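Quick illustration, no need to memorize.
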Amino acid sequence: MTLSRRDLLRSSAASAAGLLVAFHVPEIVRGIPMAAAAGPPAAALPSPNAFLRIGADDSITVLLSHSEMGQGIWTGLAMLIAEELECDWAKVRCEHAPAAPAYAHTSFGMQMTGGSTTTWSEFDRYRTVGAMARDMLVRAAAARWKVPPERCRAAAGVVSHGKDQLPYGKLAQAAMALAPPKTVALKDPKDWKLIGTPVRRLDTPEKITGKATFGIDVQFPGLRTAVVARPPAFGSKLVKFDPADALKVPGVEKVVPTATGVAVVAKHFWAAKLGRDALRVEWAAPADGGVDTVKQIAAFRATAQKPGAIAIDRGKVDAALAGAKTQLVAEYDVPYLAHASMEPLNCTVKIDGDRCEIWTGTQFQTGDQRAAAAVLGTTPDKVTIHTTFLGGGFGRRANPAADFVSEAVQIAKAAGVPVKTVWTREDDTRGGYYRPAYVHRIRAGLDANGRPVAWDHVVVGQSIIAGTPFEGFMVKNGVDASSVEGLAESPYLGGAGALRVSLHSPRTAIPVLWWRSVGNTHTAFAIECMIDEAAHAAGQDPLAYRLALLKDQPRHAAALALAAEKAKWSSPPPAGRARGLAVHASFGSIVAQVAEISVEQGQIRVHAVTCAIDCGTAVNPLGVVAQVQGSVVYGLTAALHGKLTFAGGAPQQSNFHDYPVLRMHEMPEVAVHIIPSKARMGGVGEPATPPIAPAVANAVFALTKHRLRSLPLRLP
């Protein structure tokens, strides 16, 4: 979809006679050099790709090119504009922008949401547009009163001069006729009124009342529903199918083959589901027998005995290990994980000639738009994507392969009617694109003081980047940077004279994808547990040991010390309990956690988690607290329950009965402490996920003396 100014004005009819401010908000993904960015250089005249509308009714509408999936940007980004706009917060609302090249906001030239980048990447730009709009409104009022603009004041959605007052809505049309300012001065942080203040979310009321529209809620006359019979194992192929029995089910209208399986199209979901149950399908088994979890992990462990592609090689590791006072060797492993979003995958498609409309919750608008166009043999500008609220994403709805969108377009094309393709929970769990399984083998050499002088770290696991558009700059010399993130740059190992991190990336038929906090999900577990082992081998308190290693890392040390203080680390825990800790940096933020646990009837019970986060400026502290709490829940699910296994290439789990998520009765008390910080802003949607598994594992060792090196954590 190409968005012209005329189209934009037409789309803003509800705000007729209002002020429309267009502003460019490109997002630079941290760690990606600008030289790698697609599109024009920074000096080129940018296309408008996000808009602020001020209506004649005083309403303030922010159009976002990012996707709201529970992380709170619906509120956080609006706060940035409102801070500088000096508007009435009660009249602010947001809308998702359409998918269009004008809305590309990453250095890859694509419209997407991920990597915990949204707020920090938009911080200056969104504040700037608020300041621009305020300047234009003040100038419009000054012109009406025939006074200098500097004698006017804007506050709470009103411009005033002495006793004269005009609300923004009455100034919007006149302001739109003015030239935007070439430069604006942003507020000094000491003058902020909204930023840094706890603010309730704008999207909460409609989610509580059920008015919010998620992808699965989309409905209109003539819409049909499809479910798909997909291969039972990765590597299986369709041999043949017989639609006769499926077509006998009342409500079933068509059965169509797709690139992914066989789709049953019906008047409603239940008919489609029963039709699929009745469908007779024959599948060929995987040619190589398919992935078997037990054999795969054994193979990974064997591979880990030797170095792989080198990520970092500093000093003479083997010699340093041989000369170390103490040598430690340990292997850690983590399984495949599903994303398990509360809202299963779904996508609604309506085709009209060479044009197509799509309604779905997506994190990856540009990729999905291109994929749909390819299926239809048309161009992306003829594909309109309506981004709905997402009932969880965690990376699954940001798939470069655009799997669930491409499939839905294929089905609608074959069916010849508008179709909503719905994945059941079982489809979602067994549908692939998982967090990969990994094995870590670590050899650590300690000096006489117990400090690391040599560290040899071998990682084995599938690459999530290979075969994607990001491979060109994220896979170097055979090393997928996402597989080893957090290792080479570990704050603990700066003093180790010898450090080697290497990677093996075996290929399998199982499709894999990023998962909340990406590689940090497994690297933090391995390194934080191994550091804990080193502390105990040295006979030192785990907190004191870490703080000594972090003497040149003040932000890490401060987060760890605060979490320990608030968790009362220096005081004995209640009888039958123990504490463990971990600290990890990811996505520009640092999170330390202390977990307090017990063992009840052989099961690990987490009673409390104390978190300290340094994320730079906390735009909305309530949002930060919510994201840290949610990340703890997500990470605890993986630590205590999450595990996908395979036999003959077939996933052995299907729903929450055998792939459980953390339940209400298992929820610990989570205390979150935000560290006041002037550091560069980081993300908050993911960084609190990695530390929780090692914190719990380390607490288990403190209580039981059993060192658990596999996830999910299971006592012998």
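Residues 118-145 form the longest helix (28 residues).
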